[in-house]
Amino acid sequence: MLVSAVFLLTVPWTVPMLINSFWVSVIAEILIWSLFAASTNLLFGYVGLLSFGQALFFGFGMYGVGIGIDHLGLSFWPAFGLGIFASMAMALIAGIFAVRLTWHYFAIITVVFSLIFYFLAVSMKWLTGGDDGINFVLPPTFSFGSAQWSFADPNFQYFFILATVAICFYLMHLVIGSSLGKAFMAVRENDVRASLVGLNVYLVRLTAFVMAGFLAGVAGALFAFFGRYASASYMFYHVSGEGLVWTIVGGAGTLFGPVVGTTLFIIIREVVSTHWEHHSLIVGVLAILAVILAPKGIVGLWRDGLDRITAPRMDRPAPAKLRIES
What we know:
Elements: H1 2-18, H2 22-44, H3 54-70, H4 76-98, H5 103-123, H6 125-128, E1 134-135, E2 142-144, E3 147-149, H7 154-177, H8 179-189, H9 191-196, H10 201-227, E4 229-230, H11 237-250, H12 257-272, H13 279-293, H14 297-310
Antiparallel strand pairs: 1-4, 2-3
């Protein structure tokens, strides 16, 4: 953990020396998509809800920023806040209906919501730019007199993304360790028993759904600033599917499983895509192997390995004593 933290804090200087400055942007993108995968993980890994609608909230985060800057003339922070608020509001509206359902019914209704708003975004070209999306000029993030800091500075962009993602993961850590997090896991394990001990299962699921919308919205807003545009293509349900695959392969129900899965697949995409256009086949094969060989994901496999090494071997027979008959 400490090595990873040191690496992330020194990326803008160490990565250009070791590989190429291009990878600094790739790592920033990995951080954003890891946060998006964490929103899927919160629902699937901790509450037991399989959602294919997280791309909807990601897209609302993007469009909140894009429309706020391009149409409303907002500065950085109001546009950022608008993207997050729009995502959470959409999550609340969708969640009121969706969390009444479970299993495949829940997955289907999240896909339906995602498709409805995807086609609306494509058709409302006057607002969303349609297939072309919205391009906008980056406003400064901080201004003090004549000094300004914005995403135009690659180092500032990277550290802002790193700090925002780190705060979100820390907040998720606090929630998971709280009584609310225990309620999430109780509902995941057995919603009937959870209701019998006094938990409002509907409210618990709705709370998790809105929180997951918040995480996806922050990721979408960051990605809009990162790419300087907002596009309806990121609202399509296949984006949600990618986040789910990253979560399962990395380790659903673990805090940093989505980070591991996202890192693995984006690095594969960047390395293989330059040589072979069908890199998604490799992603599919790896996902299948992970589900078969490591049902708990890479992080779960790693933890099991450490437990085998560090756990005392209680079943080892005691050495036999030499007995000499007189």
